[in-house]
Amino acid sequence: MWRFIHVSDPHLGSQSDEQLNNVMICSLMPEVIGCLRRDLEALEPDFLLVTGDLAHESTRDAMFAARDLMDSLDLPYYPTGGEYDFASPEAREWFLEVFSSRLPGAETYYSFTHKNLHVCVLDPWWRWPDGALCPFRCTTGEECGWVVPPHQFDWLKADLDAHRASPTVLAMHHPVTPTPERLQRNGCRQPGHVENGDLLLETLAAFPQVKAVFSGHVHMNYIVQHEGLIHVASSAMAEYPVEYREVVVADDHLEIRTLGLSEALFATQSLIEGNEWVAGEEQDRAIRIDF
Ligand SMILES: [Fe+2]
User: Fold this and answer.
1) Has this prediction a pTM greater than 0.85?
2) How far apart are CA 79 and CA 47, in angstroms?
């Protein structure tokens, strides 16, 4: 057995403590990462899978600051871009430059195999109000959606076809399916899933070796099953409950549990009373998935 850690939405490199459902404690993230480093020493994970919003601002400096903090964990990690990271036209260039030593190749979507597990990472693009697909945020400030672009479907199908014998998980910033209704509370700010999630589910159905999808973006914990595929959306490291997922991988299954930091003060400082529900229910916090 071996383990990896799923971390999402650390929103590093900013002093701006904004609010989503709870307060994003961006200014405290150097201390949060320091605590995470100490806590992970006991778990000895093989790597971290980081599903986006590594940097809180889409600037080259913020990307470097995010990289330095992630490097300070002193563990291998695989970064995935989120909509904060990739808001500006140059952002993917910065991402590839900054994380070149962490990425398996020269693309923001990629795959790798670690021991008995294959991992595929996708990079959704923006759908602008006029319907056009674009790799960066709409410059008029209007609402955009997110979609997995066609060239990544082609790449994914070829990659999965070449790895049919390996248990596989998918990782991307945006969830594939909507937030479950039981977690859509009054006033809940949950920013959505990819618009072409149904097409992605249809594609994945042809590859039964794909067992789970790990994502972030929604800043809440939930685990849902959709036609045999488990969707694991994980809360933000920068927001209550300041948690991460431990994933223990065995020959014939993987097991996920949700862990908080040893220093509980970070979660307390982020919490807005009444919004504890972002931590998810019991079913959102642990699961065993058989291969
Ligand atoms: Fe985020």
Assistant:
1) yes
2) 11
Query: How far apart are the CA of 112 and the centre of ligand 1, in A?
Result: 24
User: Taking the C-alpha atoms of 239, 111, 211 and 288 in order, what is their torsion angle to the nearest 10 degrees?
Assistant: -50
Give residue 49's Cα distance to chain centre: 8
Helix 150-162 with 197-205: angle, nearest 10 deg? 20
Do strands 168-171 and 210-215 pair parallel, antiparallel, or not at all (unpaired)? parallel
pLDDT tens per residue, range 175-222: 999 999 888 877 777 678 999 999 999 999 999 999 999 999 999 999
pLDDT of amino acid 199: 97
| Gap from CA of 166 to ligand 1 centroid (Å) | 30
Q: If you measure from the C-alpha of residue 215 to the centroid of ligand 1, how many angstroms do you get, rounded to a whole number?
A: 11
Å from CA of 250 to ligand 1 middle = 30
CA of 286 to the centre of ligand 1 (A): 22
d(CA 99, CA 95): 6
The domain total for the chain is 1
Cα–Cα dist 268/277, whole Å: 14
Residue 193: which CATH number? 3.60.21.10
What does the block give as tokens for 207? Answer: 């590859």
Range of the domain at 80: 2-290
DSSP per-residue letters across 229-251: EEEEE---TTSTT-EEEEEEE-S
193 Cα–ligand 1 center, Å = 12
**Long-range contacts made by residues 176-181, C-beta under 8 angstroms, separation at least 24?**
176/200, 176/201, 176/213, 176/215, 176/226, 176/231, 177/201, 177/224, 177/226, 177/231, 179/218, 179/220, 179/222, 179/233, 180/222, 180/224
Range list of H helices, the chain: 29-43, 60-71, 91-98, 150-162, 197-205, 265-270
